[in-house]
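Predict the assembly for these two chains.
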Amino acid sequence: MKKILFLSGLFFCCAAISNAQVLGEGQLHGSVEIDAQTYKADSLIGAPSVPEKMGLNSYAQLDYTNGKISAGVRYEAYENVLEGYDARYNGQGIAYKYLRFADSTMDITVGNFYEQFGSGLVLRSYWNYQLGVDNSIDGARLKYRIYKGISVTGVIGHQRYYWGEGSGIVRGIDGEINLNEVIPSWDSVKTKIILGGSFVSKYQVPDNTTYNVPANVGASAARVSVNNGGFNLYGEYAYKINDPSVINNYIYHPGQAILIRTGYSTKGFSVSLSGESIDNMSFKSDRTAVNNDLDINYLPTLSRDETYQLAQIYPYASQPNGEVGVDGEVRYTLPKESVLGGKYGTELDVEMSAINALDTTNLNDMTTTRQEYSVNYLMPSKEIYFNNFTAELKHKFSPTFRMILQYADEAYNKDVIQNEVGYQIIHCNIGVFDGYYKISSSHTLHFEAQELYTKQDQGCWAFGMAEMNFGSDWFLGALDEYNYGNPAPDLQVHYFTVTGGYTRNALRVTLGYGKTRSGILCVGGVCRLVPASDGFTISITNSF
Amino acid sequence: MKAKHWLILVSVSLVVAIISSCDKITDPIIHQNTYSALPNTAPDHVTKTTDSTSTKVLLEDYMGHFCTNCPAAVSAAEAILNGPNGNQVVSMEVNVGFDADTAGGPSAPLLPPGLPDTAFKVDYRTIAGTDWDNMLVNSTNEGVPQGMVDRLHVDANYDQDIQYSNWGTIVDSIIATPQLASINMVDSCWLKQQIFGTAVTVNLKTAPKSGYSYYLEMLVVEDSVEDWQTNGGSDVQYFVHRFVLRSATNGSWGDQLTLSQNTPITKYYTFTNTKFRFNSATIANPPQVPARLWNMAHCYVIAFLYQRNNGQANDYSVLQAQILHI
């Protein structure tokens, strides 16, 4: 009953409020999301029996701003948490609250806040509702603009740990200098340069009885960003001192990470090249934390963010203990009215990623100095973690029909990426056809056909989807994911799902029924397990 | 001083404070290579284990003096110890609950008529045994004898413990599996001072599992304790109890260890007790010691390594056990 009342309250709240509300001199903004699912056990696909028969994840965020003062809260309810999310979220309460003062030179926040230094190699606190990750810092933050083009940010606090807080204290400071603003004569220079530096330290009581663990662990980073017309370059290097933890098996090897992204773009053409090397860079505010718990930093992945269903079967997860990789992408638009471009032009996109283990040499010192290995930094070993080649073509044939064709060739080290045993490198090929047909001014048909071909793991998959949009409000769709190549004939299962929904302004209501295969869900290299399920789903989102 | 200057001063101070917040460790491993409170003289004798290459199984027999069926379980354990795999079994009797209550509590069994005043007077219950019973065995509902083999998970509440008739089969099945860890012990004993020290070296042979914690439990047991026991319809005065739990050296749940694969860790334990007795110079032929006291010549130290799955409250599975005469 309590669950139904809460759900109803949130729904009517979001339905009644459709725009930012003016309260006195201030403004109130908010957003609401409710996701619920029923569960039916299905031993064939591995869907477990869920005692409570349904789960619900939801939140409502309210932010009030009045001049230089703003404040906000986020109420979350997990009754009980959806399968695949950590059960320690079960319950409800205020998970996020803050009070903030900000003017042109100073920005002070007390309470919870999210912050990122540079690309996040030494500090990134963020919330991803879809992944079930929230490592907000509960404490204080000061941003201060010392001089034109020079700013500093200081943070201190404990990180959120489900409904409590982690035991470690996080302290950090970041400075950034925009040379074009600091040096008057550079004001009109075409080349824009920004320099930055960060230092983050964590404190945790050294309570280990076996090892002399450091109470204070520091990590620092330096970065540069250069832009000149269509050219851009971003580089960041981070270093962390000894940080023994469960993740790195209590070794005392220092951590390092380097990230370089560069690119050039002009009308109809762009090229980008990225490189990354990570060595022992897991940085958590609790040395005993595992999975995505209490991460202080974030290690971006070079792999492509896949959007198509079958391309998400083998997603890459960043390996904090060590990886080295490169990624290159070229986009080119064949001009309109050319032989290959046709009447509307054709977009071509080719991307390649290669990520391997770092080249290391075992030192056999685990009973003495526990460095464990020496590293040939920036050099890959022969062990492949992830290789991907993707080619994509987008073409519009007429005002009513356009399509996307995609082909991908992938090598995926499932043993390492998913911490499994016995799979080794999985090689697969994926083909995608994605079409949009405008039947009338208010009706659009979206349809996809995909195939994943592999002789390994669960074998081949096929995917088909059709979705019809009726005007701008309603949509209805059906999809089927078919594991036709599973080596076990009785596991050649159809995962059939129907969905329908209503969208207006920021309100979106989606209803669905069907089966979901087990797997992992990754966003930007951060992943969580998704168990198989069978049941109804409802999702409501709104903001004002 | 203007507010701006204060802010700059605070910021600079913060930078200095944070940058100094790094602890560089040059010697990672805690070297606890001396025992606490051991005599300076040479020990009377030193013993050590020599069999660290095979799986050793922990067999726990939860029982009581007044339990009429418990001698059958003792016999079952004895048969396993004397069987072909007996040298790979570490067995102990754990006295718990109502049937072990000889302290005259309100619910204690009535003393059978016609027995001497000294009959059934020794209380063999221990804090650790009671804790394990409450957490893992639940003899209050299940009764005794009950047993556990390597504390294998049977159900969510450990209510369905393993009957003694099945112990042998389960022991044999575990022995057939690859060894997960090894435990070596070296014990130094001072008889007159009634104290001993044990160095325990634990080596995990497989990679530690993510989300698991590992614990080392140290126990003192006394073998061949001759004392009263109800056996069927009769009361036996000199029933021979095997490997009776006397004390848990490091608490009911032991010490947490941070383990790495094939990286031995050594822990040091010192133990003494006012109930220790040894009043003869000849170790090989010690004199009789009253059951209420602990005959050092019959005492052994038991060590076992177990795991806890942080996401599963009832996983206390034992990976390896070891026993050594002190």
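Chain B touches chain A at residues 7-8, 11, 14-15, 17-19, 21-30, 208, 210-211, 255-258, 260, 262-265 (CB under 8 Å). DSSP finds five helices and 16 strands in chain B.
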